[in-house]
UniProtKB/TrEMBL annotation, chain A:
Species this chain originates from: Paracoccus aerius
GO molecular function, one term: ATP binding
Family: Belongs to the ABC transporter superfamily.
UniProt domain ABC transporter: residue ranges: 11-242
Protein name, per record: ABC transporter ATP-binding protein
From TrEMBL, chain B:
InterPro entries (alphabetical): MetI-like (IPR000515), MetI-like_sf (IPR035906)
Membrane topology according to the record: Multi-pass membrane protein
UniProt entry tagged with the keyword Ribosomal protein: no
ABC transmembrane type-1 domain mapped to chain residues: 75-255
Entry keyword Iron: no
This protein's UniProt keywords: Cell membrane, Membrane, Transmembrane, Transmembrane helix, Transport
Major location (coarse): membrane
Top-level taxonomic group: Bacteria
Transmembrane segments: 20-38, 50-72, 84-104, 141-160, 185-212, 232-258
Family: Belongs to the binding-protein-dependent transport system permease family.
Organism: Paracoccus aerius
Subcellular compartments: Cell membrane
Name of the protein in question: ABC transporter permease
Lineage, broadest ranks: Bacteria, Pseudomonadati, Pseudomonadota, Alphaproteobacteria, Rhodobacterales
Length: 255, 268
């Protein structure tokens, strides 16, 4: 990849606040959140349902605007969506009238790259997610896991510095999920991207992340950051991994 | 791992015809039975052939009409009327529907008046159109256009509005502007719904064509139906009706074919 991948893709949150109006009442979701994410880091965001994980990710994506505070990427405040970021959602969000190849090339085409060049680059990433034989298939002909991999390939094809993932594996069955976690780790290592991953699966967070951000719905309890100091490749059955999981579960008052 | 070897091959039950034939029969069997009953009831005298001529007499009348060129003129003028009206309805309905589906204020402003127009039967308005446009071609084409417009327009609006917000957001997150979102997401996503409207419109166009031609026309298939009945040329009357049915089927088939070409991704 390019020489400066190591230094690009820094994310800084500065006093980020966001509230929604609910029945005429402001509902604070994020309050004065500050955080520095290193370039090339893998950060997982966990927390109970409704604590603001998706909201935070949408703010980072530029799909939502903060009430106050800033998101800085490589030192510059963001304004809306940007070409250095790509989002992967819980659902694959493929365009059903496009083939796998056309779907993966879509992001590039929207950004003004010609069809031929876009599809050449798309092919590379389709191979990376192991779908080379399905370039001509339509989304309805794919399984859930395959469709999700197409979505991932589409995001990778635009070569983002920062990959934003909102429960990307949440809808998959247990087996596919494990394979995809391996693949995400591999892709993250190979592409050198900053990865910000929302998940409600603590094991997934520990498996993938350098650090875990724990958000809370309780106004009194602020967000906490937990280092995942485990060697890679990680082994879910290893003692330290299990200990780490227990520690994270304790954060939620679970045992 | 595959479980293919566990599948037992489907064996054909002896005595039943091969699958394609069976599929054909199960689909068109009733049509043939109906036509056979028609033919038999005429020839066996169950119903007076003067009222319900046997099929061969009708087909004979149809053939004579076409061979002599008499019916050809009627077909041509009818196709022209329905085609013009349908074309105009599509040319206005689709763009207007796309606009209304996309822009909330436009829809808000236009919806009440459209509802009012739509709920007023086109046939009830035909005398008004005749008063305004005269008894010639214009009023005929216009009344067909009027009735034909709404199915396409409403289906298009509906199609645009039910486009998955999540797909639009996906496109936006890659930096797509309004126009790109429209061209690459909204438009293709609406095509199946638009086709539903087009097929309804085509049916409506033929329906109104007959009605319009029954009043104050001296040519056209609808006129022939009335005229033949008036002159007691019952086989010719049925021939004209058959022609109408054929036209409807053909229009539908063309649209289905077009839909298959344009949205292979959405069909079965
Ligand atoms: N567009 C919106 N309008 C109003 N309220 C919203 C909106 N989006 C989110 N909220 C509210 O903000 C809070 C946080 O929502 P968010 O989707 O970020 O939660 P989450 O942590 O992603 O939850 P989950 O784990 O269930 O996905 C919720 O209480 C939700 O009701
Ligand atoms: Mg969420």
């Amino acid at each position: 990849m390019t020489a400066d991948t190591d230094t690009r893709g820094q994310v800084a949150l500065r006093h980020l606040s966001k509230a929604f109006m609910l029945n005429g009442q402001p509902l604070p979701v994020l309050r004065n959140l500050s955080l520095d994410i290193r370039a090339g880091e893998s950060l997982a965001i966990v927390g109970p349902s409704g604590c603001g994980k998706t909201t935070l990710l949408r703010l980072l994506a530029g799909l939502e605007q903060a009430d106050s505070g800033q998101v800085l990427i490589d030192g510059r405040p963001i304004r809306g969506v940007g070409t250095e970021r790509a989002v992967i959602y819980q659902e694959p969000r493929l365009l059903p009238w496009l083939t796998v190849l056309e779907n993966v090339a879509f992001g590039l085409e929207v950004r003004g790259i010609g069809r031929g060049a876009a599809q050449d680059r798309a092919r590379h990433h389709i191979r990376l997610v192991g779908l080379a034989d399905f370039e001509g298939a339509y989304p309805r002909q794919l399984s859930g896991g395959m469709a999700q991999r197409v979505g991932i390939a589409r995001a990778l094809t635009v070569q983002p510095e920062i990959l934003l993932l909102d429960e990307p594996l949440g809808a998959l069955d247990a087996m596919t999920k494990l394979t995809m976690q391996e693949e995400l780790t591999r892709i993250w290592a190979e592409e050198g991207v900053t990865m910000i991953l929302v998940t409600h699966d603590l094991e997934e967070a520990i498996f993938l992340a350098d650090r875990v951000l724990v958000l809370s719905r309780d106004q009194g309890v602020g967000p906490r950051l937990i280092d995942v100091d485990l060697p890679r490749p990680r082994d879910r059955s290893q003692q330290d991994f299990v200990a780490m999981r227990r520690q994270l579960m304790a954060e939620f008052g679970l045992h | 791992m595959t479980l293919q070897h566990l599948d037992t091959p489907v064996r054909r039950i002896r005595g039943l015809p091969a699958p394609p034939v069976r599929a054909f029969l199960s689909r068109y069997g009733l049509v043939f039975a109906f036509l056979a009953l028609w033919q038999v009831s005429g020839t066996l005298g169950w119903i007076s052939p003067a009222v319900l001529p046997p099929l061969d007499a009708i087909l004979g009348a149809l053939w004579t009409g076409i061979a002599s060129g008499a019916l050809v003129d009627d077909i041509a003028i009818s196709l022209q009327r329905a085609g013009l009206a349908f074309g105009a309805a599509v040319a206005l309905g689709i763009p207007l529907g796309l606009l209304m589906g996309q822009l909330r204020p436009v829809e808000c402003a236009l919806d009440p008046i459209l509802q009012l127009f739509r709920q007023t039967s086109a046939l009830a308005l035909y005398p008004v159109f005749i008063l305004l446009l005269g008894l010639g071609e214009t009023s005929k084409v216009f009344v067909i256009f009027w009735a034909t417009l709404f199915p396409t327009l409403l289906a298009t609006i509906g199609g645009v509005k039910q486009v998955d917000r999540k797909l639009i957001e996906m496109a936006e997150s890659y930096g797509a502007g309004r126009l790109q979102v429209f061209r690459r997401v909204v438009l293709p996503a609406s095509v199946p719904a638009i086709f539903v409207g087009l097929r309804l419109s085509a049916t409506t166009a033929l329906l109104l064509l007959i009605a319009a031609e029954m009043i104050g026309a001296n040519k056209g298939i609808g006129f022939q139906v009335m005229n033949a009945q008036y002159n007691f040329q019952i086989p010719l009357m049925f021939a004209a009706i058959l022609l109408m049915a054929g036209l409807g089927l053909a229009a539908n088939a063309v649209l289905v074919l077009l839909q298959r070409r344009l949205c292979r991704w959405s069909l079965d």
